[in-house]
Amino acid sequence: MKKIFLSIIGLTASLATLRAQETVYPAGSQKGLVFLKNATIHTGAGQVIERGTIGFSNGKIIAVGANVAIPADDVRVFDVQGQHIYPGLIVTDSNLGLTEVESVRATNDYSEVGEINPSIRSIVSYNTDSKIINTLRTNGILLAQVVPEGGLLTGSSSVVQLDAWNWEDAAYKTDNGIHFYMPRLMPRANPFGAEARGPGGDAVKAAMDKIGQVKAFLRDAKAYLDGGSKKNGTNLKYEAVKGLFDGSQKFFIHCDLMKEMVIAADMKQEFGLDVVIVGGTDSWMIADMLKKNGIPVILSQPHSLPVMQDDDVDQPYKTPALLQKAGVLFSISNEGFWQQRNLPFNAGTAGAYGLSREEALSAITLNAAKILGIADKTGSLEVGKDANMVVSTGDILDMKSSVITRAYIQGREIDLTDKHKQLFERYKHKYQLQ
């Protein structure tokens, strides 16, 4: 009898736990005509349309402007008077969906053993059931680049849309780039870490040796792909970087220091690769060189201290404006997964340090889409592109006024419920605050 009683208690607790979990389902395919009217429309390409109207059908934008005629029949019209419509925000350089609880190893699936792993595909490990995803959607983030970590060449990233049943549904652009985490070229940056080990404890020499290792791999891969002998069978690692040499993939080089970015530019010239700098803390110092070489930058961790002691303490805030002035294509990111929910507010900070509000918005919409190779489908509110958009009561870049009331991915209106909101309602009920 005691066992039965305990079993009932356990079952009840399990059911309570299940009820406490999210019951948010991906939306079905969008069909028919939908129009949102009387909004301030921010296209993401620098244009603002007052009292504008936007229409979409079957997942695609069909009209956007101030004088859009709305059909009389078979159409759903929503009056969003006084609200703002923005393109869906795009996260770059994230391990969203590859980890859930950092301190629980079993939930971390973003890193592989070894240093040269270009054949690893992050997309197949993407977890669409992550509780983190919905907290990003609440702040207007609808797309994310999912990036592998660990080692030097860590594998390929993919772009996912954040309303899906599984990774196949989520895939927006698969295997869009290979990632190289360049070792830091700074003497004994960590006297107890791997960077400090090497001949004579010379961290810089050890780092240069690792960079040379990656260059040697790329030379061998190019020779193999150019028709070199395959008598020993298919080499999966060489095959994985084929896109780097035929232009279908980008080479994302993670580095921060000026001399590291110079090496990245040299690699672009030597191998003819489409290079993107990720990190780019010192990119403002060599903005002209980056512009000349056509190298975009994904700025990571803008809410952080500068690398060098002599830099202005607010240099990370000012860097986006300096790159904008120099004509360098750049985006703003925030390393990690749950931290990415603050993406619009990071861009808002850049908007307070030299960028206009529309330039700051473009940094996390159209610029990000261009860097990721998806600007033909998303990143701005233009006819023919996917209907990826969010509706906010205020400025989406301002933490105080931004409240997302609607969000659409490929025209599908998604549920904006998340774990934070559920817990908020739960404890309002507990303490009788509602």
Report on this model:
- The chain is α/β, with parallel strands linked by helices.
- Helices cover about 30% and strands about 20% of the residues.
- It has helices at about 1-20, 130-135, 165-170, 205-225, 235-240, 240-245, 260-270, 285-295, 315-325, 345-350, 355-365, 365-370, 420-430; strands at about 35-40, 50-55, 60-65, 75-80, 85, 90-95, 140-145, 155-160, 170-180, 250-255, 275-280, 295-300, 330, 390, 405-410, 410-415.
- Strands 1, 2, 3, 4, 5, 14, 15 and 16 form an eight-stranded mixed sheet that branches.
- A hairpin with a 6-residue loop joins β7 and β8.
- The longest helix has 23 residues, at about 205-225.
- It is globular and about 65 Å long.
- The two termini are about 40 Å apart.
- The model is unreliable at about 1-20 (pLDDT under 50).
- Pfam families: Amidohydro_1.
- It comes from Chitinophaga caseinilytica.
- This is Amidohydrolase family protein.
The description of the largest β-sheet is: 8 strands, mixed
Structural class: alpha/beta
Provide the residue-averaged pLDDT. 90
List low-confidence stretches.
1-21
**Radius of gyration over alpha carbons?**
24 Å
Overall shape: it is globular
Secondary structure tally: strands: 16
The first-to-last residue Cα distance is 41 Å
Organism: Chitinophaga caseinilytica
Protein name: Amidohydrolase family protein
Domain Amidohydrolase-related: 351-411
